Amino acid sequence: MHSEEKMNSLKQHIKSLGSALIAFSGGVDSTFLLAVSKEVLNQRVLAVTAIGPTYPQRESMECVRIARKLDVNYLVVNIDPFKVAGFSDNPPERCYLCKYQLFSKLKEIARDRGFEHVADGSNVDDLSDIRPGLKALRELGIASPLLESGLNKSEIRQLSRQMRLETSEKPAAACLSSRFVHGERISNQKLKMVEAAEDYLLGLGIKQVRVRMHQDLARIEVGDNERHKLLSEAAMDKIDSHLRQLGFRYITLDMQGYRTGSMNSGQVPSD
Question: Quick one: CA dihedral 226, 267, 50, 20, positive or negative?
Answer without folding.
Answer: positive
